[in-house]
Amino acid sequence: MISDRLVTQGIELRKGPAEVHKGAMKIECCLFSKEDIDHFKIYLDMVRGEIPLETQKKVRGRKKAPKDVEGFREFMVKVIDELTKAEELPKPKELIDRCREEGMVFTSLEFLKDMGYPILVGKLHQKYKYMARLLKKAKNPANDKYDPSLLVGFKGDKVIIYSGAEVLWQGHSGDSADSMIKVPAKAKVKFPPYLNQLERNKFRAEIQLLKDDKERKPSKFYQRWVAEIANESPDGIEFPRAKDIPNPYNH
C-alpha cells in the first residue's frame, strides 16, 4: 500500500506525481471545484502511467552561471560589479550568499597550493579571505576538486576578484565581511615546511576520518605530527584525539 498524501494539494495536483505507481495506493484530497476534479483526474491518470509524466520545469529565478571556466569568470565579475554599483551598497552577506549560490566556498590560498593548484595572488592581497568554486566534494578532502581560475577575496569592506595573477575587479561592500567569513578547518591548518603535499593531504584526510568515526584509532603518522601541526595552526581548530596524544609543547 502506498500512501501519497497531498498536503499542498493545489500545487501537487498541478505539478503532477513524481513517479508512476502500479500497485495499490491511497490518495487523500478534497475537491472544491470542477477545476479540482479535472486536475485530480489527470493526476490519477499520470499516477497509473496512462499519461506520461511531465518533465519538471525549472523554477524561475536568478540566471545561473555558465559551467565553463571563461563563462563563469565573466559572469561572476558582472554579477559582483552590478551588485556593488547599486544605489545602496550591498551588505557583505549578500555578496557572499551570491557567490555560494554559484558553488563557491571559502578556502585558503595555502590549502589550494597544497592541493597542487597554481596560485598567483599578489603579496598585497594574500591576507584576504578567498572563495573558490568547488567542482566536486569528496569524502576524502584531498580528492575535492576546485576551480582556482577565479578567486573572490574579502577583507574588511574590500572585495577583489583574481584570475591567475590578474586582478579582474576591485570594489567595496557596504560593511565589513570579516565576521561572516568561516573558513573550514581543513583550509586553516598550518603545516611545517618540511611536510610535503602528499603528507599534508594524508593528515587532512585523517582529521575527517577521525571526526566521522569516534571509535577510530589514530594512525602512527597522525600521532607523530598532530602536536606539531596544532602548534603551528591558528587557535580554534579541532584536532580529533589530540588531547589523548602526548604534546611535547606542553610543559
Can you give a write-up of this model?
The chain is an alpha+beta fold and 251 residues long. It has three domains: 2-47, no CATH class; 69-184, no CATH class; 189-244, no CATH class. The chain contains eight helices and seven strands, in the order E-H-E-H-H-H-E-H-E-E-E-E-H-H-H. The strands form two sheets. It has a five-stranded antiparallel beta sheet with strand order 3-4-5-6-7. Strands 1-2 form a two-stranded parallel sheet. The longest helix is centred in the N-terminal third of the chain and has 16 residues, at 69-84. Mean pLDDT is 79; it is low at 1-7 and 55-60.
The value of Rg in angstroms is 25 Å
Q: Classify the beta-strand content into a percent band.
A: 15-25%
**pLDDT < 50 stretches:** 1-7, 55-60
Mean pLDDT, all residues: 79
Distance between the termini: 67 Å
Number of domains: 3
Neighbour order of strands in the largest sheet: 3-4-5-6-7
Give the helix proportion (percent range).
25-40%
What's the count of strands? 7
Listing every helix as H and every strand as E from the N terminus to the C terminus, the arrangement reads EHEHHHEHEEEEHHH
How large is the count of helical segments? 8
Class derived from helix and strand content: alpha+beta
